[in-house]
């Protein structure tokens, strides 16, 4: 009887160890959000960052930046398919006509972006934008080469692009960066920085407070 119980215990322990091992090795990767989830997050980001927004319905109906972003979500998925490139371009051009925001369907945009006062914004084909990026009117992510290479900017997370800011060429902007209005960025900007001027120069924040560009939306120079 004792041997039988011991044997049963060993079998159970072995099965448990095998299950634990299988769980660790075969666990699925983190699921990517669906397009609907991304669109809901886009809406929530607009509500959170615009004090004038009074309801989800108002944002969904009346915000051109949301319309441009939602159409880009669809166009980007079409762009990934061989037969979808022409429809993707047509959709992006139609939305440019409606909103004044031109986003190439090949551009990669992360979660919870917000285009405030969407107008005259240009985002090129190979641009990459991280999560929680805020863009004001007139911001441009453009290229400066004719080669079919990665010729547009790469933007990190939690970045603010002021109105009229221009990022030209394959520059890299780190996380937690504020780029001032009408700044022209032609060189890399490290994380936790402020970029101002033409051409833009950067400096790290001063003081012991954390840099949060989203709380200094009017003039990043207030953080200098």
TrEMBL record:
Pathway the protein contributes to: Amino-acid biosynthesis; L-cysteine biosynthesis; L-cysteine from L-serine: step 1/2
Biological process according to GO: cysteine biosynthetic process; L-amino acid metabolic process; proteinogenic amino acid metabolic process
Biased composition (Basic and acidic residues): 1-10
Domain of life from the UniProt record: Bacteria
Gene3D superfamilies: Hexapeptide repeat proteins, serine acetyltransferase, domain 1
Region: Disordered, residue numbers: 1-28
GO molecular function: serine O-acetyltransferase activity
Catalytic activity: L-serine + acetyl-CoA = O-acetyl-L-serine + CoA
Keywords: Acyltransferase, Amino-acid biosynthesis, Cysteine biosynthesis, Repeat, Transferase
One family name in Pfam for this protein: Hexapep
InterPro entries xref list: Hexapep (IPR001451), Hexapep_transf_CS (IPR018357), LbH_SAT (IPR045304), Ser_AcTrfase_N_sf (IPR042122), Serine_acetyltransferase (IPR053376), Trimer_LpxA-like_sf (IPR011004)
CDD domains tied to this protein: LbH_SAT (cd03354)
Signal peptide: none
Enzyme class: transferase
EC number: 2.3.1.30
Family, as annotated: Belongs to the transferase hexapeptide repeat family.
UniProt name for this protein: Serine acetyltransferase
Source species: Neomicrococcus aestuarii
Source organism phylogeny: Bacteria, Bacillati, Actinomycetota, Actinomycetes, Micrococcales
């Amino acid at each position: 009887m004792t041997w039988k119980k011991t044997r049963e215990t060993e079998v159970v322990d072995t099965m448990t160890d095998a299950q634990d091992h299988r769980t660790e090795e075969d666990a699925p990767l983190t699921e990517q959000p669906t397009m609907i989830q991304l669109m809901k997050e886009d809406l929530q980001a607009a509500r959170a960052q615009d004090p004038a927004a009074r309801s989800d319905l108002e944002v969904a109906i009346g915000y051109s930046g949301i319309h441009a972003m939602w159409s880009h979500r669809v166009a980007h998925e079409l762009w990934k398919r061989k037969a979808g490139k022409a429809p993707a371009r047509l959709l992006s051009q139609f939305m440019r006509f409606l909103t004044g925001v031109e986003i190439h369907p090949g551009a990669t945009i992360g979660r919870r972006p917000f285009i405030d006062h969407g107008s005259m914004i240009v985002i090129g084909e190979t641009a990459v934008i991280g999560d929680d990026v805020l863009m004001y009117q007139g911001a441009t992510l453009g290229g400066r080469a004719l080669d079919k290479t990665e010729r547009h900017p790469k933007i990190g997370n939690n970045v603010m692009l002021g109105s009229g800011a221009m990022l030209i060429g394959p520059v890299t902007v780190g996380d937690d960066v504020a780029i001032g209005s009408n700044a022209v960025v032609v060189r890399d900007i490290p994380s936790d920085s402020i970029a101002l001027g033409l051409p833009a120069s950067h400096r790290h924040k001063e003081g012991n407070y954390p840099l949060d560009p989203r709380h200094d939306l009017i003039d990043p120079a207030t953080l200098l």
